[in-house]
Amino acid sequence: MAESGATVTARLAAIVGPGHVLTAPADVEPHLVDWRGRYHGRALAVVRPGTREEVAAVVRVCAEAGTSIVPQGGNTSMCGGATPDTRGDAVVLLLTRLASVRAVDVANATMTVEAGVTLAAAQAAAAAAGLRLPLSLASEGSCTIGGNLSTNAGGTAVLRFGNARAFVLGLEVVLADGRRWDGLSGLRKDNTGYDVKQWFIGAEGTLGIITAAVLKLYPRPSAAATAMVRVASVERAVALLAALQQALGDRLEGFELIAALALALAVRHTPGAVDPLPGAPWVVLVEACDNGTDAELAERVNAALATAIEGGIADDAVVAQTLAQRQALWALRENISEAQRREGPNIKHDISLPVSAVPAFIAEAHAALTAVFPGVRFVTFGHLGDGNLHYNLSAPAGADGRAFMDEAARANRIVHDLVHAHGGSVSAEHGIGQLKRGELARYKTATELDLMQKLKSALDPANLMNPGKVLP
Ligand code: FAD
Ligand code: 2HG
Ligand code: ZN
Whose atoms come closest to the Cα of 83: which ligand? Predict the structure, then answer.
């Protein structure tokens, strides 16, 4: 017979201490709603284990009681991945007390971090040891390593360093039955059979709980340069990417496209901000890093941009002269999500395409959406260097934003069918969560879905790990 909720919470309190089993509505509430405010769930309790042993013991109790578990880190998911459903019988497993950097191995250029360490804290720990963790997201002050790995997060330096997956050398996981797998290897080479850690990266908590990871670190560059470049069209932005890759090689770390409307929203909602290139239809934010001096790198970037302007690829550019100016340019880019949230609800599309297909996709999607939703506003921005756009839609000016959200399914169909037709993906970096399960059913092959389902059944036969997420 299933245990009562009260029995389960009492058993959990015996493991983590009563102060770490939250049931009071005011304590639980922030963990039941997602960052975008799209989903609102219920839960038996929010449980906050403080060690990997406690995580394992909590999972064992839940497995015995048939209680499902929703892992949560910083709760910054863009697709409701860390929000429980409305049944109210799951526990939210909050990992934020697993917050220690266990070790930094400078000679091996690795760090061992627990799942609840924020990305910003992990970056700071690497920097304190003279190294660099170049995974970078606007949410880095609150998102956690466990969440980053579980979503295989992307961000603004993927062009050079890859997604979160690329940083992982080892993983420590609590399995659905409560067993612990210690795979905290710091090896760059290890071909001893299946690469088990990969199963849990990007699994969004549906296969097990990540409790710690060994991450690859990089040397710290001594010079950085940031520029904002005005381009007349997306075609020109794509041409600029090729030109800067040719001119700067590996020094090019970030290449972010921003449409006029997205930039205007960021300017409006960023205190003290000014538009550096007023009237530009599109801008590109360029980030370059190198050894040597800032002045040498700035000269190289300036030369590359001058050539692009002379060649008619770009129209104008501002190159930051100081750290404060670099930060101001990046603040505009990083504040777009928050600015768009303040403007009201929006329909997000986190899509990726071959870079070469981006201009045609944008033209076709613009025409198709405008025909169905006259006046729809395109808040397009994203990581063009990776072919990843945040192709976000806001309601026409003056229209009811909530009513517009009711059109999400129709808008998604137009956008995602076009993405699929161009050989793209309907989730580039944010994952599936509960937002895109239906889309997965539509765009994945039956064979791929069957393999995913088989892995899920093998690792979580009772379907207790983050049920209702990812799999259709
Ligand atoms: P949560 O939101 O708490 O959880 C995310 C998923 O991982 C859920 O499915 C959850 O169940 C699971 N999970 C969490 N911890 C664990 C664990 N220890 N073990 C197993 N499963 C776990 N994303 C990008 O990729 N690129 C960006 O540039 C980017 N920018 C953002 C900017 C803003 C302003 C915001 C709000 C979000 C942004 N995101 C971005 C999305 C989000 O920050 C990332 O998905 C991030 O990786 C989530 O981390 P988190 O700790 O908040 O995870
Ligand atoms: C970013 O790149 C994030 O800023 C968020 O991935 C994108 O808000 C969004 O749609
Ligand atoms: Zn992004």
Answer: 1
